[in-house]
């Protein structure tokens, strides 16, 4: 007799993290409607759920699990229109040939995997995006959040509801000290190559009543072709947004812009199960803030400073869940309820091989 699905909240000693769960005994290759209903409920109540020992899970089943959260969706979350030479995302993505909604990411040389041949994977490193770098001689001992983000194209396509991440190969052993380097002296001990998560719900709850009203009644307009627009810009050391140095590309230097495809989204996104609100803003891609009274905050530096002030408290170490990846882990996260960041600096021979899947949502996120 097949065991019943078990859902166990994750424990976070010496931490104030209040999300995350492990799900056991789920047959993800042959998922019944009843079991999926339990998984969906767990995902929206816990935001990040972990399935252990999924080494044999096929890319097809990973795609089908992801799609089940939004059956009308089918396109990869960033679409097919990446400007290969200029988008900051391009070096990070390889597509599984027989399952094009699933991407391969990681670090190191892969001779063959799921139809891909002789692939050189590059783990994003903060020196390629941050203005100021950790010195090279400290690179393997210390690290940073690379870029806090939501998985989303933020132009033309709606943000995916969920993302699945599958650990195929994980380097063993080494840990790093993550530095905030923003004058706070905050640090966080992290596993090598962790994925860091913070709760958008906690981000909202930490705000003052005045700021809660501000985010409840305001909307964010994202830049057109944001990952090309921001490509010359440089990140703050926390990975939480960009310096304003007039480095962004002018509209005339971007691919053609269709004004109808520019996204203006609520700052708060409603959880479909709990009804609670999460502060969900991609800090690097914001361009304007639309106020309830019809006014628009248009000055880019002011927009970024405002978003940073709202988000920064919730990325302090006590609120960060840094997942300690083991081979066979499948992590499913609520992309409309958490922000996440790549972390870590790998040696060239440290192989990290992951599969990622998210699908552009069929509808925009629901605001207040």
TrEMBL record:
<dbReference type="InterPro" id="IPR051178">
    <property type="entry name" value="TfdA_dioxygenase"/>
</dbReference>
<dbReference type="Pfam" id="PF02668">
    <property type="entry name" value="TauD"/>
</dbReference>
<protein>
    <recommendedName>
        <fullName>TauD/TfdA-like domain-containing protein</fullName>
    </recommendedName>
</protein>
<dbReference type="InterPro" id="IPR003819">
    <property type="entry name" value="TauD/TfdA-like"/>
</dbReference>
<feature type="domain" description="TauD/TfdA-like">
    <location>
        <begin position="7"/>
        <end position="356"/>
    </location>
</feature>
<dbReference type="GO" id="GO:0051213">
    <property type="term" value="F:dioxygenase activity"/>
</dbReference>
<keyword id="KW-0408">Iron</keyword>
<keyword id="KW-0560">Oxidoreductase</keyword>
<dbReference type="InterPro" id="IPR042098">
    <property type="entry name" value="TauD-like_sf"/>
</dbReference>
<keyword id="KW-0479">Metal-binding</keyword>
<dbReference type="GO" id="GO:0046872">
    <property type="term" value="F:metal ion binding"/>
</dbReference>
<keyword id="KW-0223">Dioxygenase</keyword>
<comment type="similarity">
    <text>Belongs to the TfdA dioxygenase family.</text>
</comment>
């Amino acid at each position: 007799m097949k065991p019943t699905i078990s859902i166990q909240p994750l424990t976070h000693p010496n931490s104030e993290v209040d999300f995350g769960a492990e799900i056991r005994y789920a047959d993800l290759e042959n998922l019944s409607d009843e079991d999926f209903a339990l998984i969906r409920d767990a995902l929206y109540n816990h935001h990040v759920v972990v399935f252990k020992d999924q080494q044999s899970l096929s890319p097809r089943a990973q795609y089908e699990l992801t799609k089940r959260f939004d059956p009308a969706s089918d396109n990869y979350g960033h679409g097919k229109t990446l400007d290969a030479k200029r988008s900051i995302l391009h070096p990070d993505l390889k597509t599984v040939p027989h399952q094009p909604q699933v991407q391969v990411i990681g670090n190191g040389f892969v001779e063959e995997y799921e139809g891909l041949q002789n692939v050189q994977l590059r783990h994003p490193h903060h020196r390629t995006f941050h203005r100021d770098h950790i010195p090279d001689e400290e690179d393997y001992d210390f690290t940073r959040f690379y870029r806090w983000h939501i998985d989303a194209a933020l132009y033309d396509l709606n943000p995916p509801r969920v993302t699945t991440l599958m650990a195929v190969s994980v380097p063993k052993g080494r840990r790093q000290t993550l530095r905030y380097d923003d004058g706070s002296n905050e640090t966080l001990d992290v596993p090598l190559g962790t994925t860091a998560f913070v709760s958008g719900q906690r981000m909202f709850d930490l705000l003052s009543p005045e700021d809660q009203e501000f985010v409840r009644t305001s909307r964010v307009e994202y830049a057109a072709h944001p990952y090309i627009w921001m490509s010359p810009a440089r990140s703050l050391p926390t990975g939480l947004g960009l310096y304003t140095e007039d480095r962004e590309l002018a509209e005339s230097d971007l691919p053609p812009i269709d004004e109808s495809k520019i996204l203006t989204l609520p700052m708060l996104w409603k959880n479909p199960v709990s009804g609670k609100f999460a502060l969900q803003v991609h800090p690097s891609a914001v361009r304007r803030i639309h106020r309830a009274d019809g006014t628009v905050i248009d000055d880019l530096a002011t927009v970024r400073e405002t978003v940073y002030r709202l988000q920064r408290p919730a990325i302090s170490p006590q609120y960060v869940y840094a997942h300690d990846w083991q081979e066979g882990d499948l992590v499913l996260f609520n992309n409309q309820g958490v922000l996440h960041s790549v972390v870590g600096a790998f040696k060239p021979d440290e192989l990290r091989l992951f599969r990622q899947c998210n699908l552009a949502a069929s509808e925009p996120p629901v605001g207040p």
